Input
Amino acid sequence: MSPIVKPMPGRSQEGLASPSGGGEAHEVASRGAIVKLDHVYKSFGANQVLKGVSFEVAKGEMIAIIGASGSGKSTALRCIDRLEVIDKGTIEVCGIRVDSPGVDLKQLRLEVGIVFQSYNLFPHLTVQENIMLALRHVKKQSRGEAADVAIRVLDQVGLKAKADAYPEQLSGGQQQRVAIARSLAMSPKVMLFDEVTSALDPQLTGEVLRVMEDLAAGGMTMLLVTHEMAFAKRVADRIIYMHQGTVWETGPGEMLDAPKTQELRAFLNNGL
Ligand SMILES: Nc1ncnc2c1ncn2[C@@H]1O[C@H](COP(=O)(O)OP(=O)(O)OP(=O)(O)O)[C@@H](O)[C@H]1O
Ligand SMILES: [Mg+2]
Output
């Protein structure tokens, strides 16, 4: 499968110097693949959830994963960030072999930002302090530095004015945008989003989707699981339709207008 690389604006996500990012990382970067899954298998007990999943995400690409509940979408994302350990196959992220037993998890999680449906903000910290936390403790930034980065990413998601607010003072959509900003603050090379708008009403969903669209336009490499078909079709460079633990169909957004398989057709008819 050859990934489609969309033109990259001049914005750099290289803010994180990788201490271990030697030749291997550059080799992968030069091929353009930031994330690469090759015949990935994952079971939970007797339940085989991923059955030979292979796909690549090229630098600057935005890929949407769609599929029925239980098809393995979240599991695939979680395996990429090694929140789950795979049984067979390989996963490579920015040159890091995620399936290797000795993987440097700290390095991996600096490269990968992941945002879930739940925002998990600390209620006793302001928005800005929530964002500063990992910058201070993981990236060892000074208070001043971290405060500046927090304001910059809050501006990026349109919430600079809420820096001093507490999470409970924000709407769900605003809280989710803070969660995205918190992830963005770490300058990841790829961002994973798992149904980040599922808990939101349509208006709040729209503002979060806009933030993700801006990120994609800015050249961020993104892999997102979504039920927002119109958004996926319009914004994603490619769509991956997962069915029963496999990549069943993949292609540009237009594939949703002309499904090749009966399974995708049925999924689209049920979901819309
Ligand atoms: N930690 C776990 N332990 C046991 N089973 C799990 C675990 N995580 C996922 N599963 C099972 O793996 C299967 C796939 O789950 P997954 O969450 O990846 O699906 P999904 O495609 O994301 O579905 P949804 O659209 O409902 O979020 C399901 O049968 C689920 O019960
Ligand atoms: Mg899921």
In short: The first strand starts at residue 33 and ends at 44.
